[in-house]
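hi!! sorry for the late reply, been swamped w classes. u asked for the two structures so here they r. pasted raw, havent cleaned anything up. first the sequence of the first protein and right below it the tokens
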Amino acid sequence: MTTTVPRTGRPRLARFVKTRYDKARDRQVLLGPETVVTLNPTGADILALCDSTRTVDEIVDELGRRYDRVVDDEVEAFLAKLVARRWVEIPDE
């Protein structure tokens, strides 16, 4: 089953998940129960924007201002993977 992310949804990190800078890795990481995921700069930027105030469309627009090339489908696919793992939530409106 494929997880879909609504473009009007307002993603946020799950309650038990957080991001932080890891000095040893010199990168942002996603921390969950018994999980550490090293994020690339784009992934870290996407998650920093997942504060439940912005829609997926607004996140894509903001990334478009920061980067030369942003592919909507790639942002959606990244978020869908995190939603499937329950690390990101998109509450019903």
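now the second protein. again sequence first, tokens right under
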Amino acid sequence: MARKHSKRDPYGDMHQEEEAPAPAVPCWLCGRPTGSTIVWHHPVPKSRGGRDVVPMHGICQQMLITNFTNSELQRYGMDVEGLLANPAVRKFVDWVANKDPDFTATIAKKPR
């Protein structure tokens, strides 16, 4: 089995050029670049047969889970434009648009 590092040059990896950081992935809901934490969200809940995942901010996922039931999320599916047509979602996305990618806050629950 080959060695990962040479025995004779313990600082050999310091001579290599550093790679550029990977570009930030945009959030599926708000479109802002994701920060250090990426939440992989099922637009169609797993309990409703959803398999696809999309990258999101934690606060964006909290907002969806708080304001929609699994049945409602299943009806919207992968249609982000349909979600953005909802006044509560549009208001949230407009509010969060100028926030830092790692911004978090508590989302109040919708009265049912």
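hope this helps!! also noticed smth abt the second:
The two ends are 62 Å apart (CA to CA).
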